[in-house]
Amino acid sequence: MVMGILNVTPDSFSDGGRFFSEVYAARHAIQMVADGADLIDVGGESTRPGSDPVPVAEELARVLPVIGRVVDEVPGVPISIDTRKAEVAAAALDAGASLVNDVSGGTDPAMFDVVREGEAAIVLMHMKGEPKTMQEAPVYGDVVAEVRGYLRERVEAAEFAGIEAERIAVDPGIGFGKDLEDNLRLMRGLDALLELGRPVLVGPSRKRFIGTLLGDLPPEQRVEGTAGAVAWLVARGAHIVRVHDVREMVRVVRVVDALARAGA
Q1: pLDDT over 70 (residue 18)
Q2: Where are the alpha helices (DSSP H) in the chain?
């Protein structure tokens, strides 16, 4: 599945400010669905390296009008709320979202209760530290084992809180407290994450590691590099890819899916 990114923030690393208006955000969501997006991920707080937290009231003011508009404009397309805050997740679910994409792995004490009571799904992501400081020399012994262990613990915690296993997915958190080699090792080690038995979402889209590999290209010039990462991940079993360039990545996914399943 292809998850289209809809950032309603002024400062996201790749497209901050472009879809800050409710009208422009809705238009972009419509276009992503036309381009083949299976679900839309709405976020009102940038979690780029160095970013500051956004107050709950501000985040709600950013995302709720957009979710309402998207629900009206593209009915039937699942909407995800990209948030770390249980209060924001609850309001978004009431507005029509059905999935919580939580970069903090459900560490808000009320998050699992909100997801359970809202009969929603949740993506549990690994992040080392906080967005403000997460890229300041992160260190791992074995990044794949550590991320897998953390995600296993968060899945168990979600299940203990009453969330059915089939409503839980995991995300290794590419670029969230990882250096270049950490990101590459995690993508090479996708099998270890698949062993958790939950769908795996990966978000390599336009990330800094791609720019670094391609000679420090800016985010808007990382489409081909993103396509390479998406192809690698899908071929190795990733279930969902979270991307900015939906039309191009849908085409990549369709071809790689066909090749991976040929003769199966």
Answers
A1: no
A2: 22-34, 56-73, 86-95, 111-117, 143-160, 180-188, 190-194, 208-213, 223-235, 246-261
Q: Is 62 a catalytic residue?
A: no
**Residue length of the chain:** 264
Q: Radius of gyration over alpha carbons of the chain, in Å?
A: 17
Count of beta carbons in the 10 Å neighbourhood of residue 118: 17
pLDDT tens profile 186-225: 999 999 999 999 999 999 999 999 999 999 999 999 999 9
Q: 85 catalytic, yes or no?
A: no
What are the b/e assignments for 40-58, b being 16+ CB within 10 Å? bbbbbbbbbbebeebeeee
Distances (CA, A) of 189 to 27, 55, 143: 37, 36, 9
Question: In a 3-state reduction of DSSP, which class is residue 221?
Answer: helix
Residue appearing with tokens 């419509």: 30
Tell which residue, 186, 229, 162, 220, has the closest CA to residue 15: 220
Annotated catalytic residue, options 84, 198, 206, 207: 207
Classify domain 2-261 by CATH number. 3.20.20.20
226 with 245: CB under 8 angstroms? Answer: yes
Of 100, 29, 91, 45, give the one whose Cα is nearest residue 244.
29
Q: Which two tokens stand for residue 229?
A: 């990462």
Q: How far apart are CA 234 and CA 228, in angstroms?
A: 10
Q: Global pTM? A: 0.92
Q: What is the pLDDT of residues 141-176, one digit of tens each?
A: 999 999 999 999 999 999 999 999 999 999 999 999
